[in-house]
Amino acid sequence: MTSALAREASQRGAPAGQDGRNGEPLDGGYGGGVEMPLEGYATLVGLYNALFAGFLAATWKLGRPLPERLPLSDILLLGVATHKLRWWLAKDRVTSPLRAPFTRFEKPGPGPADVTEQSRGAGMQRAIGDLFTCPWCMAAWVGAFLAYGLVLAPRVTRLIAATFAAISVADFIHHGYDALQTREG
Q1: Roughly how many angstroms between the first and final C-alpha of the chain, as a whole number?
Q2: Are residues 51 and 109 in the same domain?
Q3: Do 65 and 59 touch, CB atoms closer than 8 A?
């Protein structure tokens, strides 16, 4: 996991990556029998935080102040856009080539343009596959990037967010219309 933990275990005479008490790897029982690419997840968390640090550095270098608060209209716009973008990235048939190196097609999804996929591989490939197949996980990344964009390039970000928000609203209208047609038919 971390070099400090490995050094500490090594000083106690345990092999690197083991706790030195029962010989079990540090992350040994965590997954409960399910393979969990914890090092890959840790790398993704590190990347997420590094990107946040880069965003803060960019705002400082460009002299852009962070907003004290966001207007409710921006929060709603980014929320609806995040809802659509995260689903589009994680479940849409058209974006499956982006996920293909990390996922395996299982079956068509519940919606007309959706697919159900499983992450594949091990380590980082599996961790990225887990991220890419989880719309809720993708929301944290999408929402963060839209928020960064709102500070660094507000006009472009609002245009992109408004586009995906409009698509999301249209989707809800389509689903409502389909539900009415099904009830009447």
Answers
A1: 58
A2: yes
A3: yes
